[in-house]
Amino acid sequence: MATTAEDPARSIPVLPSPDIAATRDFYCDELGFGIVGPEMDDYLIVRRGEIESHFWKSDDRKLPEVSSCYIRGGEVPALHAEFSARRVEKLSPFTVRPWNMKEFYVRDPHGNLLKFGCAPEDI
C-alpha cells in the first residue's frame, strides 16, 4: 500500500463530455495525454505527468461550455510552447493577467476551458 508521501491527496477535475471518444482523441492526439485505466463509453481518465483529468458522459451539451479547470505549475511555459508547435486550436496567448498570474487557455472541442498558469517569477 502506498504511503501518504508517495500518493498525496490532490484535487482532480471531473469535466462533462457529450462525446467521450472525441474527448479522448483531443486530449491524447492534440495535448499529449495518455489514457489511464479501462476505456469506457461513459467515463474517461487521462493523464500527462502530474496532470490528470476525468470526464463523464453528459447529454447536456451546455455543461462543457460553463465548465473549467486550472492547472498550475512550473511546466506551464513548456506546455504553451509545445501546444503552439502542435498548432492546438483555441489556444490563447501566454500572458500576465491582472491578478499577476501568467496564463494561457485552451478550449476542448466541447467547450471545457482549461486554464494553465504560473507565477511570473517562476518563469
UniProtKB/TrEMBL annotation:
Keywords: Antibiotic resistance. The keyword Nucleotidyltransferase does not apply. This is Bleomycin resistance protein. InterPro entries: Bleomycin-R (IPR000335), Glyas_Bleomycin-R_OHBP_Dase (IPR029068), Glyas_Fos-R_dOase_dom (IPR004360), VOC_core (IPR037523). Belongs to the bleomycin resistance protein family. One of its GO terms (biological process) is response to antibiotic. It comes from Mesorhizobium amorphae CCNWGS0123. PROSITE patterns: VOC.
